């Protein structure tokens, strides 16, 4: 039983998938344990920033809504990411800004209006025992989360806090800047670093890859997102399995690309077009089935410049191996 003095929320209704996510589990892929962490790093980072937390502080990732929480104490929270018609005491909850919640009040998430995943950060952070150096919840591997065994939230769960009160003065912003609030329903262009086996694809396939419009398939989860469009053909018929990075775009024999995300397998044997940037992988994770996307090649220097600009928004930067 959790120490009541440190309980922040009680789960009144669990919804389909609510998981605890810190920055992710690093240094474990050589033993076959995947990364985990927030599918949308951008929204996760802003939730922590607005709540006054350091980079890496555990946050709730709420997929497709359905979650209802009751505060056990006065709290400062921030909800970013998808518009899951969040409400506070049956009134619309402001997104991308700091909000005070009193003990006994409820926060709920309904049906998705735009995007797929919302992020709820509480000032002081949620608390759980790390497994292999992280509390990131990976259901498939039964690792992390509030219980350490990769279990999604269930009705009646108590969500404990790292500190008894609330708001830290480290967050200067009460609300995220307008340019940092994505329109998840808008047409999307994803930046891809060409590499791996890209030279082994046919010329027509390369033209189609970067000029065709791709549709997000129904087969999309935290492991990866399948894109439907023209079939891409590669001259490689077999290859030795390689390590798979976050955002890698594999092309299986059916020619339909798969962008691999946080809960991906650690090795794979399909040829790859290259790798989505971290921010593009984050945006893709918010796409509902049927969303139209395009791929755009980007150079390493441009991608690094974009990432550094993004990281410059935050008060506490991670160590280099956790970016």
TrEMBL record:
Region described as Disordered: spans on this chain: 160-183
GO terms, molecular function: ATP binding; hydrolase activity; transferase activity
InterPro entries: CT_A_B, Cyclophilin-like_dom_sf, PxpC
Pfam families: CT_A_B
Carboxyltransferase domain: residues covered: 30-311
Signal recorded as keyword: no
Stored SUPFAM superfamilies: Cyclophilin-like
Keyword Translocase: no
Keywords: ATP-binding, Hydrolase, Nucleotide-binding, Transferase
UniProt xrefs under NCBIfam families: urea_amlyse_rel
Descriptive protein name: Biotin-dependent carboxyltransferase
Organism of this sequence: Marinobacter confluentis
């Amino acid at each position: 039983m959790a120490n009541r003095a440190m309980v922040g929320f009680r789960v009144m209704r669990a919804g389909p998938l609510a998981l605890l996510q810190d920055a992710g589990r690093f240094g474990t892929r050589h033993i076959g344990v995947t990364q985990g962490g927030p599918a949308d790093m951008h929204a996760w980072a802003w939730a922590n920033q607005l709540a006054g937390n350091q980079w890496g502080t555990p946050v709730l990732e709420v997929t497709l809504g359905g979650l209802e929480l009751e505060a056990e104490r006065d709290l400062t929270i921030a909800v970013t990411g998808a518009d899951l018609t969040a409400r506070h005491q049956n009134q619309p909850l402001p997104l991308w800004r700091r909000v005070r919640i009193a003990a006994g009040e409820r926060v709920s998430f309904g049906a998705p209006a735009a995007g797929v995943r919302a992020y709820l950060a509480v000032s002081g952070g949620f608390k759980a025992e790390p497994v292999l150096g992280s509390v990131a919840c990976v259901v498939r591997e039964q690792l992390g989360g509030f219980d350490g065994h990769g279990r999604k939230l269930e009705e009646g769960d108590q969500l404990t806090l790292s500190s008894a009160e609330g708001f830290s003065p480290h967050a200067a912003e009460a609300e995220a800047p307008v340019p940092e609030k994505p329109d998840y329903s808008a047409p999307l262009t994803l930046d891809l670093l060409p590499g791996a086996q890209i030279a082994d694809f046919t010329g027509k396939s390369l033209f189609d890859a970067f000029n065709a419009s791709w549709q997000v398939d129904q087969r999309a989860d935290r492991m990866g997102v399948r894109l439907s469009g023209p079939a891409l053909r590669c001259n490689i018929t077999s290859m030795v399995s390689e390590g798979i990075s976050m955002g890698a775009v594999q092309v299986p024999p059916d020619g339909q690309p798969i962008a691999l995300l946080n809960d991906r397998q650690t090795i794979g044997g399909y040829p790859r077009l290259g790798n989505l940037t971290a921010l593009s992988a984050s945006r893709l994770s918010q796409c509902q089935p049927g969303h139209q996307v395009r791929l755009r090649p980007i150079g390493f220097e441009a991608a690094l410049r974009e990432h550094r600009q993004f990281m410059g928004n935050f008060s506490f930067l991670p160590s280099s191996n956790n970016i």
